[in-house]
Amino acid sequence: MTTRTTAAALALAAAVTAFVSREGSAHAQACCVGASGLTPGWLANHEQALVGAQLRLSQTHGTYPVSGAFYVPTPGRDTRIETSLFGSIRILPRFQASVLVPIVTTRRRAGSKLETRTSFGDLSVVSRYDVLRTGESQLPGIAILAGFQAPTGTPPDRGTGLLGADVTGIGAWEFDAGLMLEKVFHHVIVHATALAGLRTPRDVVGVTQSLGPRALYLVAGGWVFDDDAAILASVTHSSDGDATLDGVDAPGTGFRVTQLALLVVTPLSDTFRLRTSVFTDVPPFGSNHPALGGTSISLSKSWY
Questions:
Q1: Which burial class, exposed, middle or buried, applies to 259 when counting CB atoms under 10 A from its CB (0-12, 13-18, 19+)?
Q2: Which residue in 22, 98, 192, 244 could disulfide with 39, CB within 3.0 to 4.6 Å?
Q3: Which residues are registered as beta bridge partners of 122?
């Protein structure tokens, strides 16, 4: 569940500061629309630091089996409340780094059994280097992404209770790299991000387990209004390859899922901005994973 939650977060954050990250007018001199999906708060070109918090509510509404029908109702339900604290700092004129610390509450129901647990999730650190800022030339903006995820959450083999509601992490380090492309056409912004990740092996009950490689692809488009408010629609496809146990492939342990999201970014002042979103997983590209939907809201404060 945690890997899936992380992937969802990547998708939903696609435009957090993006639309209000412009050097001049609302006619879209945006530095980082959709600015990657890696944290809820990339810095705009003129900003030096940023802090914020995000509240994310979601619930499962079905499942994608390994084979057979591509979507079936789920017999149990997961309701998740995830509060994340995040911060970003500019290290060089074109280089910034961000950190995201999630605190996850899961309410899991299966038949007559119900469990509710709260614990930290896996901490994420991500950096972005703007090779070419959006609007600098006729070419699209280009940014290089790199980051890692630390195993600060509770992995599945250390979960407690019958339903494992306190499982909030994958138990392994993850290292990611990717590329972001972005183009502005007056009020219209289009964005694409591709991200790949590898996980370190770990010992689980005497067996060396290596989770499969991870991939995420995001495309988004949006409109920036004259008052700097913005709206974005995004499609994100994420997948995990099959894991290995003591070097032997474990078929059926990977997953894939596609998510649609609608996001609205509203600047409350020169330094405060509000972001809200709704999202849902959709067929037919899901496999071996619960399907979820929900909403999120975040508030950030920046410094020049």
A1: buried
A2: 98
A3: none
3 has pLDDT over 60: no
The owner of tokens 């032997």 is: 248
- Tell me the C-alpha distance between 229 and 215, whole Å: 31
Name the residue type at position 164: G
Domains assigned to the chain: 2-303 (2.40.160.40)
Interatomic CA distance for residues 273 and 52, integer angstroms: 10
Mean pLDDT of the chain: 82
29-66: per-residue pLDDT in tens? 344 444 433 456 788 888 999 999 999 999 888 777 66
3-state secondary structure the chain: CHHHHHHHHHHHHHHCCHHHCECCCCCCCECCCCCCCCCCCCCCCCCCEEEEEEEEEEEEEEEECCCCCCCECCCEEEEEEEEEEEEEEEEECCEEEEEEEEEEEEEEEECCEEEEEEEECCEEEEEEEEEECCCCCCCCEEEEEEEEEECCCCCHHHCCCCCCCCCCCCCCCEEEEEEEEEEEECCEEEEEEEEEEEECCEEECCEEEECCCEEEEEEEEEEECCCCCEEEEEEEEEEECCCEECCEECCCCCEEEEEEEEEEEEECCCCEEEEEEEEEEEEEEEECEEEEEEEEEEEEEEEC
Question: Would you say 96 and 43 are in contact if contact means Cβ atoms under 8 Å apart?
Answer: yes
